[in-house]
Design brief:
2 copies of one chain form a homodimer. With 216 residues, the first copy, chain A, is mainly alpha-helical. In chain A, helix 2 packs across helix 3 and helix 5 runs parallel beside helix 8. Chain A is elongated. The relative contact order of chain A is 0.09. Chains A and B meet through helix 6, helix 9 and helix 10 of A and helix 6, helix 9 and helix 10 of B. The structure holds a DNA duplex (18 and 18 nucleotides).
Chain lengths: 216, 216
Amino acid sequence: MVEGAASGWREARRQSARDAIVDAAWELVRADGLAALSIRDLAKRAGITTPTIYAYFDSKHAIYDAMFGRAAAEFADRMTEPYGSENPRDVLVAGVERFVEFCTTDPARYQLLFQRPIPGFSPSSESFAPAVRALDASRQRLAVNRIVDPRHLDMWTALTTGLVDQQISNDPGGTRWSSLTEEVVDMFLTYCQTSQLAPRVPGPSKGERGGRDRQG
Amino acid sequence: MVEGAASGWREARRQSARDAIVDAAWELVRADGLAALSIRDLAKRAGITTPTIYAYFDSKHAIYDAMFGRAAAEFADRMTEPYGSENPRDVLVAGVERFVEFCTTDPARYQLLFQRPIPGFSPSSESFAPAVRALDASRQRLAVNRIVDPRHLDMWTALTTGLVDQQISNDPGGTRWSSLTEEVVDMFLTYCQTSQLAPRVPGPSKGERGGRDRQG
DNA sequence: GTCTATAGCTGGATAGAC
DNA sequence: GTCTATCCAGCTATAGAC
């Protein structure tokens, strides 16, 4: 940030104007859904006009990118806040509870972060960076529970996103699936511990598929 | 269908014209995504003009509803085809494998059936009926595995949709999550069997939430 | 940087001839 | 039922004055 310090306060004012636009964008999106965001409505909500929007953002996708960047930062901040326990299992449970709460309290944010609902939009690597940090922290919480098998990590993401997805899709505002967090975590831990103590050898399956290969 | 028999062949021709439009709609949606469907493109693809579309459907939502109805029928047909095994566990595994394959081979169909991606659209009860039949069959496959606790049923939907969601979102066309099906089923069965033999009593949690209530 | 005004396009849906 | 032609609304984005 050496050259940034030269015209720092100019850049700061520009940045705060950008932030105000992103604020308004999130308000609109929370109310009407991600796809319903329009530049006109956004300008109206922000108290400016549409050309002014384009003074700060090159395109609508650039706005989505800034929204993504803020959401990713919030996600990383929330997930890396200190956990009050030393017990690895309890930290894991608390992490999922935070994750579920983070997602369910703002479904639009969840959609933008973890699904791909905007045709043609992909977040820039800068906007994506904080999300990587958070996902790495999640990997570490699993590691202190001695879970490092890549297949188990994939199972973990399936379990947690499944809870979130069902909660948002089928019981918005309720706790029907989020209240299952503790049970799911214990199920998962029990399975991983036993399967690593005595690696499971699949018996002859009568299913419709052939045997599967166990990747490293 | 008594009064339908009177003008049966007229209705049949009308129905086949409707089917052709729905065919074209699914082709477009598979290629460009659910939200990208437009009446103009649809008419062009179907070899007719836009007013002709409105001779068969009252609105765009009515088209989505017909698309939903077909998808639900396909879903029910596929999921209720006979399973080649008598083993309850193997039937359960095969069911998930079918479910995952059904969803991943046509993500747009999955989205329309199981998520709510069209603002303002809800399927009519007639279109939804076949889906109910399929979900009930799923409930029965769990019941023969002695799984009837409502909480376990909810866990089950979270597990299966989690696998599908991760597979579609993060490895489209691959098998990174779908190949975990058998392990996930066994993890779930093991957990349910032990938890019903000896109901789990949660110890003092050091997590961030208070105790949870175990609903019936 | 901010505005007024508008270009240029695409969308759903319809009027009216045939 | 099917067409041509069109209405009207909404959208992103820009030109040009200030």
